[in-house]
Amino acid sequence: MPIVDLRQVSSRQLEPLLEEEARHWREELHWNYRASLELIKKFVEARSLAGNAALENGQAAGYGFYVLEEHKGLVGGLFVSPRFPQLALSQQILGEMLATLRAIPRIERIEAQLMPFGCPLDQALIEQGFRLYTRQFMLLPLAEAALSGQPLSSGLRLERWDDRHFEPCARLIHLAYANHVDGEINDQYRSEAGALKFLKNIIILPGCGQFQTDASFVLRPVGSDRLVGVVLTSAVSQGVGHTTQICVMPGYQGHGLGRQLMEASIQALQARRFTALSLTVTSVNANAVRLYEHLGFRTIKTFAAGVWQA
Q: Is the pLDDT score of 124 beyond 90?
């Protein structure tokens, strides 16, 4: 099956495959991925999305795409229909994309967080020299949430998100992930500028759903604009929220603030008649996994986050 440059493919050729991918996101993860796929279609139609596709009789059997960010390549998606040899085609498409990325002189790092539908992609990434980190996609039916009702620690204020928090929140994320495994997975966490770009991506752009101000909160000491905790939430389908970010400042961790932030978000979603909340977490982050399990989250899918360094 020929593997071609994605810029040679029309959105019409790709559309049935994208519809199939959208069904997997909806049925397996309760996620309406249509806004992201519509954006992909627009870039494909404009011949401006870098990547590759496998074609069978003129129709796409699989595709992958990537974006460039300064010194880094980011594999943004890879999906092969289960109607075809998924692993073999995934390996071929991934190999073509990575060969192109590695030929770009300034690229020193490639990140890939790929949701597998039908077959795991771990082996394909390992064969390409990626270091893998297992991540869990967890889901909480909000009617089953185990809330403690613990009062907020004295000296701290819980406030809803406001756009004036962008820069203080970027500083918080940078500090919170300074020695954290997620900083190895996503290098945007390693600088305030990168964290600010990350925040704008999850709050302004549609890739992580529709941002929910009413279910997103910050913690700050009374009398200070400095943030010591944050939880950010989006809606990813009708009645389903997704925690796009939660972190607590070092020095404040281990005192239940993460749970208080999660409970505030859960209660806000319950008040708006949401029925479920999802999130992703790196498996070796045992304290976070344990917190989410105590709240009632259960893992419904695992996937690999991969990092390649030149």
A: no
